[in-house]
Write a structure and sequence with these properties.
By secondary structure, the protein is of the alpha+beta class. Helices cover 41% and strands 22% of the residues. It has one domain: Glutaredoxin, CATH 3.40.30.10. It is a single-pass membrane protein.
C-alpha cells in the first residue's frame, strides 16, 4: 500500500514546492541584478566612433552633462523591441543618448540603423567586448544612466519600456540633476 502511495506523495510535495516558488516569484525585484558600479565612476575607455571609425571617443569626452549609455547590437532581437522607446527618449531632448554597439560588425550596425533609425547622439563600438566587461554588461540590451561627472547612477538590464522610463529613469535623472 505504501509503495502505491509513495509516487503520489512525491508528486504532491513537488506540486507544493512549485506553487510556493511561483508565489515567491511575484517579487518585483526577482530579476534585478545589482551592479557594483552604481555610484561609482564609469570605467575608463577609448573606443572608436561607429560613423567615423578613425575617431576615438573616451568616457571623459562624454562628461559635462548626464547621458544614457544604451548597449545594443544588430543581432539582438530585444534591442529592436526597445528601439522605439530609445528614439522617443532621444527626440524628447531630455537626455543625450549614447549608443554602445557591442560585438557587432560595422556594416551590420550601420544597416540596422538605416532600417530602424539612428536616435543616438554618439555611437561607440566595442566589437571585441572588453569594455563591456569593465561595465559589467551581461547581455544586450542594457542601459546605464551616467551623471555629468561620469558617475553611474542607474542600470537597467533588458529592453527599456515607456513604463521603465517614466517610473525609474526619469525620476533618477531628476534626482541627479537636482543634486548637481
Amino acid at each position: 500500500m505504501i509503495q502505491r502511495l509513495l509516487p503520489l506523495v512525491i508528486f504532491a510535495a513537488l506540486g507544493v514546492l512549485l506553487f510556493v516558488g511561483v508565489r515567491m516569484s511575484g517579487d518585483p525585484n526577482r530579476d534585478a541584478l545589482p551592479s557594483p558600479l552604481i555610484d561609482r565612476t564609469a570605467p575608463a575607455f577609448v573606443l572608436n566612433a561607429l560613423h567615423e571609425p578613425e575617431r576615438s571617443v573616451s568616457e571623459s569626452d562624454l562628461r559635462g552633462a548626464p547621458y544614457l549609455l544604451n548597449v545594443w547590437g544588430s543581432w539582438c532581437p530585444a534591442c529592436r523591441d526597445e528601439h522605439p522607446v530609445i528614439e522617443r527618449l532621444a527626440e524628447s531632448g531630455r537626455i543625450r543618448v549614447v549608443g554602445f554597439n557591442w560585438k557587432d560588425e560595422r556594416e551590420d550596425a550601420l544597416r540596422w540603423l538605416q532600417r530602424f533609425g539612428d536616435p543616438y547622439h554618439e555611437i561607440i563600438v566595442d566589437q571585441v567586448g572588453r569594455t563591456a566587461i569593465d561595465w559589467g554588461v551581461y547581455g544586450a540590451p542594457e542601459t546605464f544612466l551616467v551623471d555629468a561627472e561620469g558617475v553611474i547612477r542607474w542600470k537597467y538590464i533588458g529592453p527599456i519600456t515607456d513604463e521603465v522610463v517614466e517610473k525609474q529613469l526619469l525620476p533618477t535623472l531628476a534626482r541627479i540633476e537636482g543634486s548637481q
